[in-house]
Amino acid sequence: MSDKETDSVTLYYAEMETEALGNLWLAASEKGLIAVRFDEDSGQFLSNLLLEMDTADSPNIMHDEERLKPFMDSLTAYFAEKTPIPTSLPVDLTDQTEFQQEILRMVREIPFGATTTYGELADDIQNPNAARAIGQVLRRNPIPILIPCHRVLNADGTLGGYGGVMGSDRKITLLKHEGIILA
Asked: Where are the domains of the chain?
């Protein structure tokens, strides 16, 4: 077997439909979930996924709903029954820097129906000047909903400049779904 064959990465993907947010595309590596996207179709999803990957070689990409079933089931329960998504579901953040991984892990621990602020996260890492950098990490969150960046607000309780992977309409939808916004 050549080095190229041993180094090849396999990714698995599936699509699911939600009433609240429309179609979600999920992708996973052998280690865990790597992406949740809101693309229009499989072509757009696969193209965007490859653009975001930090790899010199193109991965093998396979449609595999069975492999993604635990994630899809958890998302279905989240939307239908307002069940928190288990933090035990594996995510693969290996393409992220150490700082990004630290922030994404912290945000993943924010409980269902709770919020925090960019400043509080900066204080938690003992760097009060990191709020903007944290905002940039969350703007590029590869696994929204499971890593609930929608639960991070400005210090004054406003959404902030939320134009990232989800957009402000999706953020508002999720905050309403969790009972954080009551309007």
From this structure: 3-81, 98-177
The identity of residue 10, as a single letter, is T
Question: Crossing angle for the helix pair 98-108 and 131-139, nearest 10 degrees?
Answer: 80
Reported pTM: 0.90
Q: Which residues form the catalytic set?
A: 149
Q: What ranges make up the beta strands (E) of 8-163?
A: 10-18, 22-28, 33-37, 60-63, 116-117, 152-153
Task: Give CA–CA dist 173/168, Å, rounded.
Answer: 8
What architecture is domain 3-81? Answer: 2-Layer Sandwich (3.30)
Q: Which residues pair with 28 in a beta bridge?
A: 12, 33
pLDDT, tens digit (0-9, with 9 covering 90-100), for 26-85: 999 999 999 999 988 999 998 988 888 766 677 899 999 999 999 999 999 999 999 999
